[in-house]
């Protein structure tokens, strides 16, 4: 079994066998990234393919550190670019001021599976879902998110607050339906 370093070196030499190994090693994790940023499997697969092409095309720019982190950045940015290209087809939500609403009911979250939680996150409106994923999952700050999505920093904050509020309501509904 080749090490990650050997696989990367083989990919830098454009050897198909090593490209296949890299694909096998990371495809599941990177597909999970793609599905967090889209509403459909079809869109996620488009982003996935485009991002993997970028990984192979730009692998010579990788010079150490977390390779998975380097790849994840490519996948996230590809998903954001996809969002921008298709933005005219999506409803945009823009709120200048919103109260921060943080769910305090951690017990609700402990009663559902990770898969159910991902399903609920995927039900968020587009803007909410993007900001939620970038802030909560990827760890970007609101200024960075604003730059990526071409929105105001305040809009990023309000989208996150709305996403949390929306998720809290969905979790409460889920909890109620589970008890019936």
From TrEMBL:
Residues 22-88 form the RNA polymerase sigma-70 region domain. Residues 115-165 form the RNA polymerase sigma factor 70 region 4 type domain. It comes from the Bacteria. Gene3D superfamilies: 1.10.1740.10, Winged helix-like DNA-binding domain superfamily/Winged helix DNA-binding domain. The keyword Metal-binding does not apply. GO terms for biological process: DNA-templated transcription initiation. InterPro entries: RNA_pol_sigma-70-like (IPR039425), RNA_pol_sigma-70_dom (IPR014284), RNA_pol_sigma70_r2 (IPR007627), RNA_pol_sigma70_r4_t2 (IPR013249), RNA_pol_sigma_r2 (IPR013325), RNA_pol_sigma_r3/r4-like (IPR013324), WH-like_DNA-bd_sf (IPR036388). CDD domains: Sigma70_r4. PANTHER family: RNA POLYMERASE ECF-TYPE SIGMA FACTO, RNA POLYMERASE SIGMA-70 FACTOR ECF SUBFAMILY. NCBIfam families: sigma70-ECF (TIGR02937). Belongs to the sigma-70 factor family. ECF subfamily. This is Sigma-70 family RNA polymerase sigma factor. It comes from Rufibacter hautae.
């Amino acid at each position: 079994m080749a090490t990650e370093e050997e696989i990367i070196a083989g990919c830098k030499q454009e050897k198909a066998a090593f490209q296949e190994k890299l694909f096998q090693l990371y495809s599941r994790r990177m597909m999970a990234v793609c599905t967090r940023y889209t509403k459909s499997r079809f869109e996620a697969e488009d982003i996935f393919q485009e991002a993997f092409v970028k990984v192979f095309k730009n692998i010579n720019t990788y010079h150490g550190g977390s390779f998975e982190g380097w790849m994840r950045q490519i996948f996230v940015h590809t998903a954001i670019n996809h969002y921008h290209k298709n933005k005219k087809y999506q409803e945009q939500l823009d709120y200048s001021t919103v109260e921060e609403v943080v769910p305090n009911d951690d017990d609700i979250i402990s009663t559902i599976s990770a898969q159910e939680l991902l399903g609920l996150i995927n039900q968020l409106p587009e803007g909410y879902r993007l900001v939620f994923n970038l802030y909560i999952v990827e760890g970007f700050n609101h200024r960075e998110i604003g730059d990526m999505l071409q929105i105001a920093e305040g809009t990023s904050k309000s989208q996150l607050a709305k996403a949390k509020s929306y998720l809290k309501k969905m979790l409460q509904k889920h909890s109620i339906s589970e008890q019936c």
